[in-house]
Amino acid sequence: MAQDQDIRTGRHCVFLMHVHLVFTTKFRHKVFTARHLKRMEEVMANVCSDFECELVEFNGEAEYVHLLVNFPPTVSVSKLVNSLKGVSSRRLRQEFPELKKHYWRAQRLWNGSYFAGSVGGASLDVLRRYIESQDRPHV
Predict the structure, then answer these.
(1) Is residue 3 part of a domain?
(2) Measured by CB atoms within 10 angstroms of the end CB, which terminus of the chain is less buried, N or C?
């Protein structure tokens, strides 16, 4: 079970929701250095904060990044992704002009697709068994 400090509260709910996101560069070009990734983590943490989310983990390699984001139920994952990709692309292109050679034709840093996977403390089998084990009222 999750630690009590991990559980968040909203006005009408109590929640603990995480999503694993993976973004790849346009044409899978190997464009990122450690310096780019460090700055990107800062930018993405700020975007998450604007959405009242928390960037729990961030890592990447030359052509992709992984994020683990704790988010409230009021946030649409697709809107969060659009903002993360848009703001990071714009900021990195402004701050690192050398990236232009990798996206000149497409005018985009990121591939249009992304991976989003829900993350939780219990496996689907454990949750399924728990729900099945609940007593049903006798009608």
Answers:
(1) no
(2) C
